[in-house]
Prior knowledge:
It is built from four helices and five strands, in the order βββββαααα. It has helices spanning 72-81, 84-89, 92-104, 108-130; strands spanning 12-16, 25-31, 36-41, 46-52, 56-62. Strands 4-3-2-1-5 form a five-stranded antiparallel sheet.
Amino acid sequence: MPASTPFVQVGRVVVVTYGPDAGKLAVIVDIIDHNRALVDGPTTGVARQALSYKRLSLTSIVLDKVPRSIGTGALKKAVEAQDLAGKWAATSAAKKANQRTLRAGLSDFDRFKVAVLKKKARVAKAQAIKA
């Protein structure tokens, strides 16, 4: 269990997990009800829309001093002022997602080279343990 559970709150940064905006960051702008939130991603291309919590993944990042129903322009300024892109890039979830997209973009020969390098590392590790 994580050290602290991320709660649904205004200013919480989320990752859209389903639909045309899947994989993009957005910020919860308003809570509509127990099933949906109004999200906006002015710097990532996510239009202001109501999304189900089932389609969102909460992150540990919360933007400070973001009032309910903040406008898109003011939210964009807050996102840029608080360096959301830098904070997100430093998280393990972002690193894992980047690694996944990098692996998905490999050609057949690139996958072969990775397999050869892994085999060399495995053999070197086995020899080091044996010695």
